[in-house]
Amino acid sequence: xxxxxxxxxxxxxxxxxxxxxxxxxxxxxxxxxxxxxxxxxxxxxxxxxxxxxxxxxxxxxxxxxxxxxxxxxxxxxxxxxxxxxxxxxxxxxxxxxxxxxxxxxxxxxxxxxxxxxxxxxxxxxxxxxxxxxxxxxxxxxxxxxxxxxxxxxxxxxxxxxxxxxxxxxxxxxxxxxxxxxxxxxxxxxxxxxxxxxxxxxxxxxxxxxxxxxxxxxxxxxxxxxxxxxxxxxxxxxxxxxxxxxxxxxxxxxxxxxxxxxxxxxxxxxxxxxxxxxxxxxxxxxxxxxxxxxxxxxxxxxxxxxxxxxxxxxxxxxxxxxxxxxxxxxxxxxxxxxxxxxxxxxxxxxxxxxxxxxxxxxxxxxxxxxxxxxxxxxxxxxxxxxxxxxxx
Length: 391
Ligand SMILES: NC(=O)c1ccc[n+]([C@@H]2O[C@H](COP(=O)([O-])OP(=O)(O)OC[C@H]3O[C@@H](n4cnc5c(N)ncnc54)[C@H](O)[C@@H]3O)[C@@H](O)[C@H]2O)c1
Description:
By secondary structure, the chain is of the alpha/beta class. It has two domains: 5-126 and 290-312 and 346-368, NAD(P)-binding Rossmann-like Domain (Rossmann fold, 3-Layer(aba) Sandwich), CATH 3.40.50; 129-281, Dihydrodipicolinate Reductase, domain 2. The chain is 28% helix and 25% strand. The chain has helices at 16-25, 39-48, 59-62, 79-88, 103-116, 130-140, 166-182, 290-304, 312-330; strands spanning 5-10, 29-35, 53-55, 69-72, 92-96, 120-123, 147-157, 188-194, 204-210, 216-222, 224-236, 240-244, 252-260, 274-281, 336-337. A nine-stranded mixed β-sheet has the order 14-13-12-11-7-10-9-8-15. Strands 3-2-1-4-5-6 form a six-stranded parallel β-sheet, sandwiched between helices. Helix 5 links the parallel strand 5 and strand 6 (120-123). The relative contact order is 0.15. Residues 10-16, 35-38, 41, 58, 73-76, 78, 96-97, 123, 125 line the site of nicotinamide-adenine-dinucleotide (NAD). Residues 10-16, 35-38, 41, 58, 73-76, 78, 96-97, 123, 125 line the site of nicotinamide-adenine-dinucleotide.
């Protein structure tokens, strides 16, 4: 038995308590401390978790607190100073999405983590979702053919943020899922939007990411919609997937539907599109809280010395896309080229346990709680069978 990793969570507002609950539930984690400037929030969480120490000043988590790792769930504009202080104090660091307010800040955090051999992870939670992993499996297996385009909608009424627009708040989830499914980074982005409630802070945005082979993704983000919508349609050349994250059951449905052009025709009268309508199939999805898997993965990476699936580089790349979306907004929706690594690491398997080895310096043994880093086992891949009705 190794000792549980000692951990602290900064930020106990809306999202932080979910991280506290999940880390508390993991047997190899000792959630020792929580921190929030807001005493009322701290008091509330301490009443739920009486054994956990609560502090209002962040520096108390660094000096003499004897923690292995820190989790940052504060407003985005505070991520960089808190994360940098955490890394400089030798703590493995988890930062909620988006990683920081600028790519320069993200780059600096990546560099500090690499120099010090510390794990740096970003909270791209949906890449730990069984539904998203299943979609990736189906797409990689070739069951829907070549991806034509992806359309994502993430809408609800609020929660309004003061320091970022809705694209920086909601689109990171969709961008990370889209990149994962596409298996590469986008070539360019255009974004248009409008600010209806807070002047200068867009509450409705439409982002379009352009990928190689004429593929694209449209991402609609809104804080100004009466319904909570978390929906993504992945249109393939053979079939189409509809992913509804709000649906209690059948989060993924595969439609055996497509349109084909006839290969040859001599007269216009002979020409007609062939519409194919087949079965709708819903694969089994394991019920598992993505956030729990994400929290466990952070602990596993600290112990094994591997880079997280959603590491600092991914956080940096995503913030570059968000910066480009803001530049496009300022240019009235004109496309902004990205120049990101075309294949990056997006195609890699994110199935549980398929941890990529870190390319930076090895994490000192002291930071591994006395355990040797162990190579993770690749999980078995299962083929999805789709019933097909011939036209
Ligand atoms: N992964 C997800 O699915 C997901 C979902 C929601 C929010 N988030 C992210 O979580 C982060 C927090 O969002 P939120 O909605 O909980 O914000 P929030 O404003 O509700 O909570 C932030 C909390 O941090 C505290 N805080 C701010 N600065 C601090 C400091 N210097 N020291 C200590 N405490 C400080 C505030 O008092 C507040 O209680 C954001 O980055 C957001 O994007 C992620």
